[in-house]
Amino acid sequence: MTEPTAPDKKPFLYVVVCASGVAHDVGKLITAAQEANWDVGVVATPQGLRFIDAEAIEAQTGHPIRSAWRLPGEPRPLPPADAIAVAPATFNTINKWAAGISDTLALGILCEAYGMGIPTVALPCLNDAQAAHPAYRQSLDRLREMGVLIGSRGAPPSGAGSGADRFRWEEALELLETRMKQNGTPPGAPTRR
């Protein structure tokens, strides 16, 4: 169990970024979260790193991007999370997470979040063929049973004008606000148990 965030500090949001064409716009979610009084750190899947501008994100958040486990004795580069938004959440990440597979730092954090009571939301981003797979539907059901709030499914971009601009980044914050109200926690307040 982690210690609660001090009253004078902003709650800390982990944004887990997966390998999807919309990931390059994750700064939109970071900006919206910062405007909503969150401090933000990014955790990227190893493949997700290829889809983002790491230098720009680190400048925007003031924190290093995490993608690999730290060695024993190394300091933690990010404070503990008060909430987590997985955006974009890919087919691969959703299915591994629901199955309890933690073969990357991002998945390890997501698998532990359930046991730590950290409010978590996911914004899926996958194509129709992947969404039709029975494992995906079963994984969403499992994640919902775990208390994960699932946002609207966006389709990954397939080229210019493909709809990447319609991915609803702000939905992650809307869902977190809903969860906080359900828990009786004011928006922007720490939520860990």
Automatic annotation (TrEMBL):
Domain of life the protein comes from: Bacteria
Gene3D superfamilies from the UniProt entry: Flavin prenyltransferase-like
Segments forming domain Flavoprotein: 14-106
Designated name of the protein: Flavoprotein
